[in-house]
Write a structure and sequence with these properties.
It is a multi-pass membrane protein. InterPro entries: CbiM/NikMN. Pfam families: CbiM. The protein is an all-alpha fold. It has one domain: Arp2/3 complex 21 kDa subunit ARPC3, CATH 1.10.1760. It contains 8 helices and 2 strands, in the order H-H-E-E-H-H-H-H-H-H. Helix 3 packs across helix 6, helix 4 packs antiparallel against helix 5 and helix 6 packs antiparallel against helix 7.
């Protein structure tokens, strides 16, 4: 899910940083000190999960876990994803410095989508609603990231059309895996530590 330096055009890179900066401002401007440990923990999980890459033709796939960040952090998920990607670029050269903005948007926006999807569970009385909506949120986050990445590549030109399609297809199994993992995790957490899923931010106390 990382685009490397030298692939995208300067206008696309600039747009990525502009959008990422705006989203960082609106999602972190009212963050409080007691939220930092929680954000740091999930950031570490996203950082580690997406470090291991599996080659698929000219591209590669890896776990994304932005859906997990979304259901655990709410709107703070974008900042978590941004920090994880920045550290990966600086420490391990995964992606690149110039594409941090675009990569953060590609992974962070679907994380926010996952949060909103998961919040939809409140309207359903099913005892398994956390499992169902957690799975849907995770799958949507991965597919959303793959779609945004593909669109970023297509913005360069038709020469990336085949790779963009391959990215979408290659991440369908990842979406299924993360749907299962995150759904089960949400079901487990709601029974043992429900406050991990329902933060003040997600409940609307600060949004």
């Amino acid at each position: 899910m990382h685009i490397s330096d030298g692939v995208l055009s300067p206008p696309v890179l600039a747009a990525g940083f502009a959008i990422a900066g705006f989203l960082l401002f609106i999602t972190l401007r009212d963050v409080e000190a007691e939220e930092i440990p929680r954000i740091s923990l999930i950031t570490a999980a996203v950082f580690v999960a997406s470090l291991v890459h599996f080659p698929v033709g000219p591209t590669s796939v890896h776990l994304v876990m932005n859906g997990l960040a979304g259901i655990l952090l709410g709107k703070r998920a974008f900042g978590s994803v941004f920090v994880a990607l920045t550290l990966q670029a600086l420490l391990f050269q995964h992606g690149g410095i110039t594409v941090i903005g675009v990569n953060a948007v590609n992974m962070g926006v679907p994380a926010l989508l996952a949060w909103k999807i998961f919040e939809g569970r409140r309207a359903f009385p099913s005892p398994k609603r956390e499992v169902y909506f957690g799975s849907l949120a995770a799958a949507s986050a991965v597919i959303g990231t793959a779609m945004l990445l593909s669109l970023s590549l297509l913005a360069v030109g038709d020469e990336f059309k085949e790779i963009a399609l391959l990215v979408l297809i290659a991440h369908l199994p990842i979406a299924a895996i993360e749907a299962g993992v995150v759904g089960l995790a949400a079901g487990f957490l709601v029974s043992v530590k429900q406050e991990m899923l329902v933060t003040a931010v997600c409940d609307g106390a600060k949004s």
